[in-house]
Each structure stands twice: as structure tokens, then as C-alpha cells.
Write a structure and sequence with these properties.
- With 54 residues, this protein is mostly beta strands.
- It has one domain.
- Helices cover 0% and strands 35% of the residues.
- The chain starts with a strand and ends in a 25-residue tail after the last strand.
């Protein structure tokens, strides 16, 4: 089975709560992924909506 993210919620900084199509849920801390591949643009926290900055 290929996993797909069905929901993601911003928590703080570079951390998201994620849910998958197999019912699993977890917390994804993307801090270590910054600067790599598709995550490079996340370094600019200004890309997040203003209401989500902390």
C-alpha cells in the first residue's frame, strides 16, 4: 500500500500533525529536512500565513 497524507495541520515552527490513508497519525518535525529538495523553500518562515507565526 502506498501511503498518502489525508490531513496536515500546522502546529509550530516546522512541525505538522499528519494523518495518513491507513488511519495512522503522527507528528512530523521537518527541521532536519530544511535545505534539502522540496523542503528548501520552508526555510523562509515568512511563507507561512501571518496567523501561524510564533
Amino acid at each position: 500500500m502506498i501511503l498518502h497524507i489525508t490531513a496536515a495541520e500546522y502546529l509550530h515552527d516546522y512541525t505538522l500533525a499528519v494523518s495518513f490513508n491507513n488511519g495512522q497519525k503522527g507528528i512530523a518535525d521537518l527541521t532536519d529536512a530544511l535545505g534539502q529538495g522540496v523542503f528548501q523553500s520552508l526555510r523562509e518562515i515568512g511563507l507561512l500565513p501571518p496567523s501561524q507565526h510564533r
